[in-house]
Amino acid sequence: MKQLIALLPLSLALVGSAFTQDKPTGPFGFTKGMTREQVIQQVGKEAVKKNTSGQPDVLVVTTAPIPNHVFESYLLTISPTHGLLKLSAIGADVATGDTGSELMSQFDTVVAAISSKYGEAQTFNTCTGNDTECDNSQFFMMTLHDKNRNVAAFWSLEKKDMHLNGVVNIMASANYSTMNAGYVRVSYEFEGFDEYADKKKAEQDKSY
Question: How far apart are alpha carbons 73 and 75 in whole angstroms?
């Protein structure tokens, strides 16, 4: 099952944005600072999925203002005061063999497309399993399943003048679904997300 991880900063690896309904901007047409109501108005009530994440600030929808056929759903972290602060696009399953070549092709295509807009990424394909698993391509999907392999790309837009559409960090990853299928996930963090996540963690920590 594809987990709904929406509140963790990508770095573990504000208000006031104008929202123009007929000219959406930002990744997949989602704009930093959008409210829950504005998102639903754009995608339609029928696109809203039941939230099973246990995170009240998360909205899950099956389409986007500018949808992409690679992705089947979008997880939006929407602060009650600051609006949309994080977006995660969950890819449809890609049929693949033991070597994961079809999944990696999809991952490389997504990374290239994002890089054409946001600049070159830092990419990783690391394996911490034994030599037999890590050195033989036929064990690629098995190492993903066992969480011994990490396939990811990161874009860190550290300078303010690099924050295209308010995006601060981006992460893309290749993920396991079954031994014969995987999917690509892409997450975008907007300005203000780190502060939001820190505040949520501090509130949670008070319970101890």
Answer: 7
Rounded CA gap, 108 and 86, in Å? 23
Q: Which of 68, 93, 88, 69 is nearest to 78 (CA)?
A: 88
**What global pTM score does this model have?**
0.85
Q: Where are the beta strands (DSSP E) in 128-208?
A: 149-156, 167-178, 181-190
| Three-point CA angle 165, 170, 171, nearest 5° | 160
- pLDDT digits 0-9 by tens, 158-194: 776 667 889 999 999 999 999 999 999 999 999 999 9
As beta bridge partners, residue 173 has: 152, 185
DSSP 88-147: EEEEPPEE--TT-HHHHHHHHHHHHHHHHHH-PPEEEEEE-S-HHHHH-GGGHHHHHHTT
Half-sphere exposure of 114 (CA within 13 A, CB side): 31
Q: How far apart are the first and last CA of the chain?
A: 30
CA separation for the pair 45, 120 (Å, rounded): 37
